[in-house]
């Protein structure tokens, strides 16, 4: 029996991304073609400012995305803070269709921001009805961890994982959650990779705080054993941040996803080929961080979560599509099959098998972190905007056919924020009217 569902939405990708002295191997055509072959019909990519300028960054990404062959949206990263950035955030939300801003708590000396900027950014996001997102790792501690590994003579890919243990992800996640709570604004934690971070999200949600946790497929199904492989190219292809953890973390993240503690699955698709990864052959700090996943996500979530009975078919649609559409305020245009919605549909055969290989995938990367994975549940047809783009293992796509999807502010996550603020203000019982004592 075939299963029909709305096309997948990947909330976390980096196409044509300049990072760590390289540029991701997939651009807005090859990455999107790979996505369509895997049943994903929309993705949301991260715009990186140019010299801190949001407008310049957006202009650069608008040029990059002209070759798109499927629908896409944008998040915006914030890498510095001043009045110009504050004004540009208003333009992004009110004129450019961007309703989310990402703050990197890691990558010291590059993208990392401090707590003061984080607070200013959260405050601005709240006023605009935009969702604050964080890459939650303690960047100062990770930098110290890297230095420690080098001093110990650990220069290979395993040094990357050892330099940024789960406690650094847990600490930053807790800090971001507490600061977002202080500002009373919703928070989205990207690529949740550890039990430490997941437990902080769980605790916050139980207390009523609006926190979204996004695991990525590599963190759900892989483990850290690969970075210890004696072959450098094999080990280096698994280097990403936060790192892929020990198997128990992935199992816990799967359970958290099945229980609703984590809400949706992304990929952090940010692939570099083996030549690019080899830039760090003598120093793990120079290995470009990132793995693939945009083509594999829908298959792996089905095989790992539905086939095992951890989630239902309905939950599968929710965590791969519908919840993302709701969070970023594009539902029911996306994430639904109904009159008035975009005709983004997949047909998945639960009884058909798939095998993942760099030889057959559609990414331009010469490696694949899921190499050799065999599973059940194959996307046999992908329909994007009413057009059949994947059928009989053949892609039918062309550059320029994708559309930019504007995303409006004030999603459902902002419901009740005003009432909570009013309740807080009324609870202060201040300022107190005082009088001066006379003598």
TrEMBL record:
It comes from the Eukaryota. It catalyses: 5,6-dihydrouracil + H2O = 3-(carbamoylamino)propanoate + H(+). Its EC number is 3.5.2.2. Its cofactor is Zn(2+). GO terms for cellular component: cytoplasm. Residues 7-389 form the Amidohydrolase-related domain. GO terms for molecular function: dihydropyrimidinase activity; metal ion binding. InterPro entries: Amidohydro-rel, Hydantoinase/dihydroPyrase, Metal-dep_hydrolase_composite, Metal_Hydrolase, Metallo-dep_Hydrolases_sf. Carbamylation allows a single lysine to coordinate two divalent metal cations. One of its GO terms (biological process) is pyrimidine nucleobase catabolic process. The modification N6-carboxylysine is found at residue 102. Keywords: Hydrolase, Metal-binding, Zinc. Pfam families: Amidohydro_1 (PF01979). Belongs to the metallo-dependent hydrolases superfamily. Hydantoinase/dihydropyrimidinase family. Homotetramer. NCBIfam families: D-hydantoinase. This is dihydropyrimidinase.
């Amino acid at each position: 029996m075939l299963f029909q569902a709305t096309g997948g939405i990947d909330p976390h990708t980096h196409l044509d991304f300049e990072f760590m002295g390289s540029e991701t191997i997939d651009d807005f055509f090859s990455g999107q073609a790979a996505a369509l072959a895997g049943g994903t019909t929309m993705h949301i990519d991260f715009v990186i400012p140019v010299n801190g300028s949001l407008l310049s960054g957006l202009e650069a990404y608008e040029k990059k995305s002209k070759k798109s062959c499927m629908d896409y949206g944008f998040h915006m990263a914030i890498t510095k803070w001043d009045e110009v950035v504050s004004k540009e955030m208003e333009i992004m939300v009110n004129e450019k269709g961007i309703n989310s801003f990402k703050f990197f708590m890691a990558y010291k000396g590059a993208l990392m921001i401090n707590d003061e900027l984080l607070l200013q950014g959260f405050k601005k996001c709240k006023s605009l009805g935009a969702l604050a997102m964080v890459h939650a790792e303690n960047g100062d501690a990770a930098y110290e961890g890297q230095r420690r590994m080098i001093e110990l003579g650990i220069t290979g890919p395993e040094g990357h994982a050892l330099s940024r243990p789960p406690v650094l992800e847990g600490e930053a996640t807790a800090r971001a959650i507490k600061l977002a709570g202080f500002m009373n604004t919703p928070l989205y934690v990207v690529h949740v990779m550890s039990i430490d971070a997941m437990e902080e999200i769980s605790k916050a949600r139980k207390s009523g705080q609006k926190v979204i946790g996004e695991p990525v497929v590599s963190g759900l199904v892989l483990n850290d054993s690969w970075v210890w492989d004696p072959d450098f190219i094999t080990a280096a292809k698994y280097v990403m941040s936060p790192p892929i953890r020990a198997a128990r973390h992935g199992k816990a993240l799967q359970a958290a996803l099945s229980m609703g503690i984590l809400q949706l699955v992304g990929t952090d698709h940010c692939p570099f080929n083996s030549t690019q990864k080899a830039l760090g052959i003598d120093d793990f700090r120079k290995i470009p961080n990132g793995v693939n996943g945009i083509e594999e996500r829908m298959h792996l979530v089905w095989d790992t979560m539905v086939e095992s009975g951890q989630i239902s078919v309905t939950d599968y649609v929710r965590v791969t599509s519908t919840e993302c559409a709701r969070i970023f305020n594009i539902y029911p245009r996306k994430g639904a099959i109904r009159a008035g919605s975009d005709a983004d549909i997949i047909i998945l055969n639960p009884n058909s098998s798939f095998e993942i290989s760099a030889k057959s995938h559609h990414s331009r990367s010469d490696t694949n972190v899921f190499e050799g994975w065999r599973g059940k549940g194959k996307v046999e047809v992908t329909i994007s905007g009413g057009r059949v783009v994947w059928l009989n293992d053949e892609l039918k796509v062309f550059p320029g056919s994708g559309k930019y999807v504007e995303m409006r502010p004030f999603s459902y996550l902002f419901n009740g924020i005003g009432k909570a603020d009013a309740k807080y203000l009324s609870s202060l019982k201040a300022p107190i009217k005082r009088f001066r004592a006379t003598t």
